[in-house]
Structure formats: C-alpha cells, structure tokens
C-alpha cells in the first residue's frame, strides 16, 4: 500500500528502477464494472509496483468507485473530474504492490454505467515494495477553464512521475514528461499516458491540447518506505591534528545488522583556509562512501572552525575505519559516531541546517529554530568553537565535549524526535569573539 511521504527527502541508495508502460486496454460497453483480463504488468518482482491510469466518460453524476489489480484493491493516488452539463470526464491514477505474475486482471467499477473506459498500465521496482506519494496534481477544464496546463511538482532523486490525460476531440502533447502511449478510446476521445524518472527535488511539466473537455492527474512517487522507529547508540569520539586526510582506525560499530546505519559528526579547525572556506569533500565509514547530510564551511581566514554530518548504510562488520578528507590541512579534527538501526532498512535526511556566528557578540548559534522532524526520528547536531568557549544545548543531549587542542572545543548532540519542529538551541560561553569563531550543523533523520 502507499503512504504519504515527507516532501524533499530521499533515502540512501533507494531508487525506483525499471519504470515502463506495459499495456493498455479499452472498452465502450456501457458497463458499471469493466473487467480487463490478462493485461501485461511487466516482469515479476517482489518489489514491483503496478500503477493503473483509468479514463472514462460517463453520464452526468456517475463517478469512479474502485479499481482492483489481480483481485486486490489498488490505492487511489490522484483523480480528476471534468464536470459537464450532460457527461463527465474521469481520470484516475491508482497503484499497489504486485509481486508475482506477468499479467493481471484489472477491474474498474463505477457508481453506475459508464459510457466507456480505458486503462494505461505502468510498473516499476521500488525498494521494499513500497512507493510513497510525494506530491500530486489534479485538474480539469471545468475547474481551470484552460486547455493548456503546467505545474512544478515536488519530486525526489530516484523517484518517478506518472501522469495521464483524457480529452474530448483532440490529442495531447507533453513537455517535461515523456508521452508513452496515446489511445483513441472511442472516436476522437483520446487518452494519453506520460512518465519520467526524477533526479532532483522538483520537476516542471506541461500538457497541451485544444480540447475544452479534459481531466488530468499527475503523481510523484518516492522509493522510500513509510517512516518508522529509529534506535540509536552514541559510540565514541577521538581527535588528531595536522592532517588533510584523517583516518580513525578500528572504530567500534556495534553488532552487525542489515538495517544498521552509522552517522558521523565532524568537527575541525583549519590552519589556512581559502576565501571560500574549508570544507569536507568526502567521508567513508567502514569502507562505504558516506552521504554528507550537511556541511558548514569555515569562514575565510586562518584557524577557523568547520563542522559536518555524514551517514552511510554499514550492515556488516563490528569495527571499521572512518576516513575524512578536507580541502585544507586541519589544525585539529574530531569525529563522533552514532549507530542507528532503522525499522525498515532505510534512512533519509528530513531537514538540515548549518550556520556560522555572524558577529562578535553571538552567543546563540544562528541555526534554524524550527527544524522539521518526524515521529520516531532522530536529530543530530555538532559544533566547533575556538577561543576558550565550549558550547551547550538546552534541548538536546550532549554526547561529546572535548578540548581537542588548547581551547578549541568540539561538541556533538542528539535528540529523539516526535514529529514536532525542533529547536537545537545551542549557545556558547559569553566573551569577545570574531566572525567565524564558531560553527554548527544539525540534521533531522527519518527511517524512510
């Protein structure tokens, strides 16, 4: 089944694959229940999602009721209605996990007899057999008064977008989505399906036709699973000096687990930095390339601090090396590690922020005061401060604090989240400081 997914988030290694338009079927029998038998649904896969786009013209007042795929109810993701004076135009997108078979029977039911009905079928493979709805669009001529429509829909990297449009008297052209098929349901009653894999957080599309009688839904899918509980353990921390590539060897990762992730907080101070600021370029954890969730570069100048948070799925091994590569040699660097067990083997960043003190009087680091979180999620933050003043948080648990080189303080913090916006509320001791004397980063994680 499908569920709402947090917009903009993406899961580590989770990608929708094998997106294909697999078959079509149509009938003008004037039925309340249409059965389309042995419709192609692509190669069997335990994680296959089948999407059915339904189009119909019906007498006034007749509505779509339900759709089943292989005898099992499909979840309606989006629907659009062209409300006419004597007839209706209906377009629906529904989906479900269908792990077995290469064909299936599709049954579409209306509240009363529909004049005709057609389906366009898609399938794709999604991790864990779940594909969540990120965003939807649904309009018709009766609601917009337009013939040509466009929208920017929210997507995720590794997701998919599917749209369909039913028109009276004219065909459809698409921009941003690729038209996969268009069928003439009944003389000049056109039904078009279009799709695209998404590679960023937004996708702009346009659908054009001269028809003044149309209905059009579009759905953006994410490969991530439904958010579930995270359990975490703070492991330990260590520091060193004067390196560009820092390797911390033999870090305890705890017991191996198929659903284990390691989150690393990185706190450092450069020796000489460029005007763009020293930053982290790569992190590996137990030999696995990590995703950098957030990176706050040092301010320009010498001996200024920076911080970052990175994470990776590390299912095997009880120990591993953590390797951090930075753009400049560090005067000092420290890392902290957290072991996370995800309830469904996925981990994503819901929200993140990084900040540097903006003037010499800042005693509260200017991080977001309203970080988006999820129930059963986790907030992790880190700070690096120089010139004698350590940091603290009134809302999070401080897991690590160390003077990693004389009067250069590194801190890491964590908080189990409940879905309400979180305020990291990090402050440092008062005293005269310079621009860029302390930095902080925060990331909100979800099992999705």
Key phrases:
448 residues; mainly beta; 8-stranded antiparallel sheet; 1 helix; 32 strands; 61% strand; disordered N terminus
* Poorly predicted residue ranges: 1-13
**Secondary structure category:** mainly beta
User: Count of helical segments?
Assistant: 1
Major pleated sheet: 8 strands, antiparallel
Q: What is the percentage of strand-forming residues?
A: over 45%
Indicate the radius of gyration in whole angstroms.
Answer: 27 Å
| Arithmetic mean of pLDDT | 83
DSSP E strands, number: 32
The N- and C-terminal alpha carbons lie at a distance of 15 Å
Tell me, what's the shape?
elongated
* Total number of distinct structural domains: 2
Helix content: under 10%
Structure report:
By secondary structure, the protein is mainly beta. It has two domains: 17-222, no CATH class; 230-446, no CATH class. The protein is built from one helix and 32 strands. The chain has one helix at 141-144; strands at 17-27, 33-40, 48-59, 64-69, 72-73, 75-83, 87-97, 103-110, 116-125, 132-140, 149-154, 159-168, 173-175, 178-186, 189-198, 202-208, 214-222, 230-240, 243-252, 260-270, 280-285, 288-289, 291-296, 305-313, 319-342, 348-356, 375-386, 391-393, 397-405, 408-418, 426-428, 438-446. Strands 18, 19, 20, 21, 22, 23, 24 and 25 form an eight-stranded antiparallel beta sheet that branches. It has a five-stranded antiparallel beta sheet with strand order 1-9-3-7-6. The longest helix is centred in the first third of the chain and has 4 residues, at 141-144. The model is unreliable at 1-13 (pLDDT under 50).
